[in-house]
Specification:
The chain has helices at residues 10-22, 30-41, 46-56, 60-69, 89-93, 96-107, 152-160; strands spanning 81-86, 120-125, 137-139, 142-144. By secondary structure, it is an alpha+beta fold. It folds into 2 domains: 10-69; 81-160, Glutaredoxin (3-Layer(aba) Sandwich), CATH 3.40.30. Helix 2 packs antiparallel against helix 3.
Length: 162
């Protein structure tokens, strides 16, 4: 995957610095700073991580480590309709992988990618706590339970017109 260098605008850099400052540029607040920054920008590309690292006086590697460790942080822009498939144990044994494969096939994206039109992004989650409804798919905040590979087409259709 080639990395396109993102050019941050001065006002974006200023906004990141302002967020860092709101947490007193405290390295111990890194996770909170990243949450607030992702809330503002929608995702955390390397260029944003570099500014955060500089402001909190921590290494870029440390920031990257936190961003990649926690599944709620993302380095790619989320689609308008972010799709998350639960791959926790209950969902997995009830066929979540086949459901995931079907989403990948129909949308023609890999996990962690967004469709070229920006409509859908695809991700996996560990457990959403709805094990009785396994396999579970989340689209934005909406929960779909007992999803079968055959049902994937209809779920996508629901959002295509939006």
């Amino acid at each position: 995957m080639s990395h396109i260098k993102l050019e941050l605008k001065p006002e974006q850099v200023a906004k990141i610095k302002e967020i860092c400052k709101s947490f007193n540029n405290d390295p111990g607040e890194l996770i909170n700073v990243l949450h607030k920054t992702q809330e503002t920008f929608g995702y955390l590309p390397a260029e944003v991580q570099e500014v955060v690292a500089a402001e909190l006086n921590v290494s870029v590697a440390k920031v990257y480590g936190v961003v990649t460790f926690y599944s709620f942080f993302t380095m790619i822009p989320k689609g308008k309709h972010p799709i998350s498939i639960c791959t926790g144990t209950a969902c997995y044994v009830r066929g979540a992988e086949k459901v995931l494969d079907e989403f990948k096939r129909i949308l023609n994206v890999k996990v962690g990618e967004t469709t070229p039109d920006g409509k859908f992004s695809l991700n996996c989650l560990r457990c959403v706590g709805a094990c009785g409804l396994a396999p579970v798919v989340l689209i934005g905040e909406k929960v779909y339970g007992r999803v079968s590979p055959d049902g994937v087409k209809d779920i996508i259709k629901e959002y295509e017109e939006q």
